[in-house]
Specification:
This protein is an alpha/beta fold. It has 14 helices and five strands. Helix 1 packs antiparallel against helix 2 and helix 7 packs across helix 8.
């Protein structure tokens, strides 16, 4: 019978038990205590019985301990099956996903796992199931996400150019009075009506959940503005979108601007935003966003959050009921300044 492999002597049994007390890995604790028993002079059979394993496993623990010390006894993650794709094939698959399908060639407007599996077969002559390919894509960092809408007439460079040139402009707005603090505000309007949006909801797999949907058309307009850096918001509910309503909203925003500060208000190029009849308070400077670029306005994300959480899947009995719900939802947002910061802060605008 072969002689037992010796255990390294630079750690005493007390050291090993000390490691075990500080360790949060139960498997590693069991291995450390078994080796402490051996270091104390116990037999390998006693250590195997103590740990509930075979002598061969104890031998493997000794080898690991001798090679890497107590850290080498940590529980290892099973390697699993080897990937069916190599690095080069995964890189080409990623390029194909980023480029998207060509409808005339691939017959679809978005990639499905079945389509990508067929592409892998055509390119590499590898047969892969949808389940396996889905696991590969998740390992590569891909997830199935909702697409963000983009205006069909948007110019590719408008957003990049605006992000680069606008911050110096609004910072100069405070130079009219040296030392004037600048507040960055964003403004938009949302129509809230009886035909509410139906949102996603948790339901058992294989079922089709339902939600109430009104067919009437009464609606109101919620004018909203946020200052993400300060966690502030100002809003009003109006029956129409026009210059008069916008002037009233500007007056409401001006009221929320800190005393002695000046606000740069970023907003889209709707007709009532540039009307000659618009009354602009002295502590506000309007800065129009590029046309067809709603992605630049974080208030669009505020509307999405409010609809998903407070203004969807419900029936409004009357116009007054719509106003009440709009006021409730907006006031609920105002009471959560951290939410305004989380949704509204943009690194390119606020430098964070």
């Amino acid at each position: 019978m072969a002689a037992a492999i010796g255990v390294r002597t630079d750690h005493t049994s007390s050291d090993l038990r000390g490691f075990a007390r500080r360790c949060s890995d139960p498997g590693q604790v069991r291995r450390l205590l078994a080796l402490a028993l051996i270091v104390d002079g116990g037999s390998r059979s006693d250590a195997a019985k103590f740990a509930g394993v075979t002598l061969q496993i104890v031998r493997d623990w000794v080898l690991r301990f001798n090679e890497g010390g107590p850290d080498a006894l940590a529980t290892r993650k099973a390697p699993g099956r080897a990937s069916i794709l190599n690095d080069e094939q995964r890189a080409r698959l990623a390029e194909q996903i980023e480029a998207g399908p060509i409808p005339a060639a691939h017959g679809v407007v978005r990639w499905r796992l079945a389509d990508l599996a067929q592409w892998v077969w055509d390119e590499f002559a590898l047969s892969v199931t949808r389940h396996t390919l889905g696991r590969e894509l998740r390992a590569m960092g891909y997830r199935k996400l909702s697409a963000r809408p983009r205006h069909h007439g948007q110019k590719p460079d408008d957003i990049v150019e605006f992000k680069k040139t606008s911050p110096p402009v609004w910072r100069r707005s405070g130079e009219r009075s040296r030392g004037t603090p600048i507040e960055l505000w964003w403004q938009d309007e949302a129509r809230i009506g009886q035909q509410t949006k139906l949102t996603r909801r948790w339901a058992r797999r294989g079922t089709r959940p339902s939600a109430p949907k009104d067919q009437r058309r009464a609606s109101a307009w919620l004018f909203g503005a946020i200052c993400p850096a300060e966690g502030k918001a100002a809003g009003i509910v109006m029956p129409k979108c026009n210059s008069e309503a916008m002037s009233m909203h500007l007056e409401e925003i001006a009221f929320h601007i800190a005393p002695g500060a000046h606000a740069v208000l970023l907003l889209d190029q709707a007709g009532w935003h540039g009307s000659a009849e618009l009354v602009i308070p002295s502590n506000i400077t309007l800065m129009p966003l590029p046309p067809r670029c709603p992605e630049l306005n974080p208030v669009e994300n505020v509307w999405q959050f409010m609809r998903d959480n407070w203004l969807s899947n419900r029936i409004y009995q009357s116009y007054d009921d719509i106003i009440d719900h709009c006021c409730f939802a907006w006031n609920k947002l105002v009471d959560q300044p951290w939410r305004i910061m989380s949704i509204g802060l943009r690194r390119w605008a606020h430098g964070s």
